[in-house]
Amino acid sequence: MGLLDAxxxxxxxxxxxxxxxxxxxxxxxxxxxxxDLRPTxxxxxxxxxxxxxxxAQMQEEIxxxxxADPQAPSVKVTQDGxxxxxxxxxxxxxxxSTLCTHLHAVNSTLESQGFGHGLLCTxxxxxxGDGRRVGLVYLYKQxxxxxxxxxxxEQRRDNLxxxxxxxxxxxxxxxxxxxxxxLALWNAPGL
Amino acid sequence: xxxSRFIKDSGLTARMTLVMFLLGALLVGLVxxxxxxxxxxxxxxxxVIGIGVAFYQWWSSDKVAMxxxxxxxxxxxxxxxxHAMIDRLCAMADMPKPRVGIADMAIPNAFATGRSPDRAxxxxxxxxxxxxxxxxxxGVLAHELAHVAHRDVLVMTVAASAGIIAGLLTRGAQFxxxxxxxxxxxxAMILVTLVVSMVVYAISFVLMRILSRYRELSADRxxxxxxxxxxxxxxxxxxISGGMAAIPEGDLRAAKGMNAFFIxxxxxxxxxxxxxxxxxxxxxRLEQLARIQTxxxxxxx
Lengths: 191, 301
Description:
Order of helices and strands of chain B: HHHEHEEEHHHHHHHH
Number of domains of chain B: 1
Low-confidence stretches of chain A: none
CATH topology of chain A: Alpha-Beta Plaits
Strand order of the largest sheet of chain B: 1-2-4-3
CATH class of chain A: Alpha Beta
Number of domains of chain A: 1
Helix content of chain B: 55-70%
Largest sheet of chain A: 7 strands, antiparallel
Shape of chain A: globular
Oligomer: heterodimer
Radius of gyration of chain B: 21 Å
Distance between the termini of chain B: 13 Å
Mean pLDDT of chain B: 83
Number of helices of chain A: 5
């Protein structure tokens, strides 16, 4: 937003950056090699649903679109305590590029219907050999990624692991530099 | 091509620009008048002091406002829900996260202050935390974040500078008339200064309030688009206004100086209210929110 728009009080909602999401599959190889983290085959988009008929209608459309895929991934819709909707896509195999295509379908539908500014983040969970889960989170408005590694069963983050992930992925993905933006996503679906 | 549900309000922008222009013209007019009336060396001195006062108010707005409201900054550990809400809103709006404060007051209200978006504070009272639902509180926070994004503290301080200088001149003229009432020429000069500065002060007072109302409407719009839930902000405003009226006057006077930064004014029902209110009437705010709601709910082909 320009300074003039700020002074005139006419800021408009920030549009999301959708393209960086396709860099996730290549980053997954790095994660597997460096930290033995494998994709779980799931991923979720977190967005703000607008009130009104138009949004409900569009959400139906999105669900139909993904379920029409011959490989038929399952889609679950959940609400979190902050008023955001999570759309969790579970692919049949561990192929991240199909998953990303599905997630992108969700994003682009939201954007084409004029709800793109409601996109908050996308999370792709990874699992280590001992069953621990770590989320790779993409922030739409900043166009950057960050890791979210909760300790299993606790509301505490493994900051050391998160830093390791950040450093490992720095070459593949634009990582969020401002640590304040590393939102804690407790109880996110798939983690 | 992506379809946008954002409706512009060119009328509001135009009216706001006009008011800001008038305030600027008023400042220039005052400076010119002072240069004519007062001895040569005097005008720059008045201008420097006036700008200095305005600059100080803007520069230390976060500390002064927090102190005036007896608010204290809270860490994410102390108020996790509030911080998480603001985190999410800032991520959606792509703005730096402001500091968060809580004021221990029964009046349900919230304000934002600070010299720039990087140095901003968003503060809520314990009254508002108790009365609003999570959705409504989020609407209010989005409104306050819009004030931060629109740099309202800076805009309002610059807009106030004509009034500040006029106020200083009025004081100065009063002291001057006491000190040297004997000299005829000087007495006339002081009288003219007094009249000019009082007129300027009165005009700037009214213009400031009009500008403040426009800024509130802008913040409502931006907040509603951010949360995509205009109804929640609407019901929060209704609840807050109701609470404001229910609380006795005596408590409210303490908050008077902060009114321009509040979400709903703490003083109600002054005569002249349409001209001198810092906030637009509730019906006008709800009407705007209803328009946004319609736009968000409209099905597209």
